[in-house]
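ok so for the tutorial part 2 we go from a plain amino acid sequence to predicted structure tokens. step 1 is just haveing the sequence, like this:
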Amino acid sequence: MLQVSLTKRRGEFTLSAAFAAPTPGVIALFGRSGSGKSTLIEMLAGLLPPDEGEVQLAGTTLTDTRRGIAVAPERRRIGYVFQDARLFPHMTVGGNLRYGEKRAGAAPRYIRFEEVVELLGIGALLGRRPHQLSGGERQRVALGRALLSQPQLLLLDEPLASLDAARREEVLPYLERLRDWLSIPMVYVSHQFDEVLRLATYLVLLEAGRVLAAGPVGDLSLRAELRSVLAPDLVGSVVDGLVTAVDAAAGTVELAVGSGKLKVSLREAPAGTRVRVQLLARDIILATQPIQGLSVRNALLGTVVDVTPEDPTSVLVKVDVGGPVVLARISTAALEALRLRPGDAVWALVKAMSTRGHAFRLFGAPARRA
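step 2 — the prediction. this is what the tokens look like for a chain of 370 residues:
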């Protein structure tokens, strides 16, 4: 468990954040620029002293202003990956990695040099210097250096922010590997919701120095607090499914979601893999009876649990589909025509574009460390 309760005043800005998140897993700090994400992560690292508050990790107190506890950054066993990698330019990739090993001191070794090299795919880079690497390669090396310090917590402060789309896609699979193969708690700072969807297990939503909401990603996807900081087209539910069948030729899998099934475009996800899917509210069609003669093939039978006005012309309808809840955005005219009320049975029809590009493996490989 990572328990945080911190306050910091910087000029006219005040950060006052409190949450308790389960570990291991990826805790995402998400919010607009200027919401306090980087200030919070600097205090977790011990690089910035809070005005008041405390930090506990797995029962160990790292900060407690009331008791005068402030463990030095170098003694916290925290790995920190910045936006700009910050590799030593005079060292080779191998030298940078070995520096991380030296920082571990007498800490127990749970991952070796060779394992890090294999995990991050950087064996061919060991003799190069940082200026000879792409942005994505530099970030992978920075991750490796942080891992070799044998951290008990890994902090990633918008590590993909300086990369273009292609380089981001290069690095994201390696971050997934870290999440899936190593049981190291991670705090991941981002203002890109697609990164949060792909990586996070727990979400802390920040706005103007305050925690608006915190909880599992799926739960928060249904909350008004998250909708308030997302673009309307990104509003939707996040559900987990289990791969039950694979069509390798078509590049699709069948997912068991609640009491129904979805067909999703996703490769290299064998049967038994858990998958996270974002179903965009704009792409869900509701029907009060089974539909025939449509190109839409994904249909989940559910029950209306809530109807919330979104603006004068549209509403958000929450539909329980056998445990998971999906969001559908429909017009107020459609709501009146369908006469939908909580408790009504409906079919949620999911357009193919709603899942394409938004289906991600979730814990696809067993953790290697208890």
